[in-house]
Amino acid sequence: MPRRSRSAHVLLLCALLASSPAFAVEITPEAMERYGNMAEALLRDGVSRKTVAGAGHVPAYANFLAQKFQQAGFPEQDIKVIPYGETAALVVRYRGDGSSNRKSILLSSHMDVVGADPGDWERHPFELQEDDTFYFGRGVLDNKFDVSLLTTLFVWLKAEGFVPSRDLIIAFTGDEESYQETVQHLTNEFRNLIDAEYALVVDGGGGALDDTGKAFQYQIGFAEKTYATFSMTARNRGGHSSMPRPDNAIFDLAAAIQRLEMHTFPVETNEITLTYFARTAPFLENEVGDAMARFAADPSDESAIETLRGKPEYVGTLGTTCIPTMLEAGHAENALPRSATATVNCRIFPGNSVEDIQRELQVVVGNSALEWAVVGTPVSSDASPFNPEVIDAVATSLDQIYPGVPVIPKMVSGTTDGAYFRAAGIPSYSLTGIFLNPADSYAHGLNERVRKASIPESLIFWRSMIALLAGPQQ
Ligand SMILES: [Zn+2]
After folding, report:
1. Spacing, Cα 234 to ligand 1 middle (Å)
2. Same structural domain for residues 200 and 272?
């Protein structure tokens, strides 16, 4: 990324924006400076709050943000802080005039973050730090950036007197990184507050930059694999280790694990994964790109499958994966184990149920004496349909910041709040205005960072999105 002063960058973007006929509302450099500063101040405040699971800091954050909406003129009855255990959700409705006769659009992000040990970081994780190019801190990328951005966006639009043609709803959840229960609390108990034609989950997706700072692709998440964890337990009557027998819980479990190691789930495809491979292929000028192109053209191409399966970053896009992640066995060094348990974590391709995959694993293992259990409550959701309105709006809005960047649909291997919106019947698309070099992606890791230019770029992107999806009717 070439170094450029921030204000120069803002001016450049404003010039780009003003030259685009698709967007009627011009952004003055003064307004961009003002709301850019607001987003930065919100990010600084957000990062200073240690909103990790169990710490109980989310409600104060939600109340602080609620106040910002109130001060901006949103009526009190349209701002709801919804407590849930030690955490909370915040829902804000931006009322439209109903002129489009369309259902609401939901915009969702999360206020909680993954834990961070200050001892491991070069910089303090719960303090916004910066250099010329980046902001650093836990949550600057995932997901306090977009919480700050959406809050600023609503405040800015309100200050301009903008009235959308349909309601816009912000839902900030409070435990996306841990239990993902606040989202379920919203879909189950507060459906009337968050019901929408579709949800834009502003978390994940977004643009990729190469080493020269050039944008080469933009991803929208359309589907998520089902995250499911199984425990597989061998039991035995045990005994003293001085009198061993051939039957042994650890041997039984080890044999089962070896059979899992030999197993590969069948290759599966859908419209999203095939489009993803076909559109990503041209950007990788290597054997992987070549394999993607061949696979997209013919999903039974064995050598393409072998190449892609050999890459941990792509194997999950080819089908279901299951892998042992934890072991627990025995109770004393001089006793025969009475039980041995393996934890097996699966990422299930859309269209398969958790039960189907458990059955397949049981067949593979071939030992009916083993006990199986599902850990936690997995949620399956179908892929969201292609939505031309959203895709066109994204492409037009990207023209304001990175003209011509190809838009690529993506299936995510993890589970975000979006899976619960989908499971509740609200199609959900994950996207963000953030562009970054994949090498600079430190979400969940040490020294998480986001480009400072992401603030003006994202403000331009989201103003355009709102104008296109909920602006005055032509
Ligand atoms: Zn996130």
Report:
1. 36
2. no
